[in-house]
Amino acid sequence: MSLGYEVAAKREPRFIWLFLAKAILLAVTIVVVWMIYAYLHAYRLDWLGWAYAKLLPVTNALYALVENYFPPDMKYKIRGAITDDLGQRSLFLLLLTAATELTLYSAFKLLKYIFGAR
């Protein structure tokens, strides 16, 4: 009976390492997204304009969703939140963050596979 306990006690605290790795990935993602956005804002404003124009239909769909499916007493508050928080810039940053995190995560997994770390 004690053999099972000893094996369980000798295992690594895997959760802590996974949590720390995710926290580091989050921090790196934030820095990379900030740098990409700063670069685009400073040097490629036309690219940002193009992205915002492509996201305009999504924003309009959110407005239509609110207008058609929310109760009248909630429409004003929700429209204000969408206008302030979910405009094209915010949607662009959310998508950029998701794409950056997926890319970094895939790169880390690829490096782990190449170097055989377990």
Q: Structural class, from secondary structure content? A: mainly alpha
Number of helices: 5
Oligomer: single chain
| Unreliable residue stretches | none
Compute the average pLDDT. Answer: 84
When the domains are counted, the total is 1
Strand proportion = under 5%
Q: Radius of gyration, Cα only, in angstroms?
A: 22 Å
Beta-strand segment tally: 0
The helix/strand order is HHHHH
What general outline do the C-alpha atoms trace?
A: extended
Helix content: over 70%
> N- to C-terminal separation?
29 Å
Largest sheet: none
Overview of the molecule:
With 118 residues, this protein is mainly alpha-helical. The chain has helices at residues 2-10, 14-43, 45-69, 72-85, 88-115. The chain has one domain (2-115). The chain has 5 helices and no strands. Helix 2 (14-43) packs across helix 5 (88-115) and helix 3 (45-69) runs antiparallel to helix 4 (72-85). The longest helix has 30 residues, at 14-43. The mean pLDDT is 84.
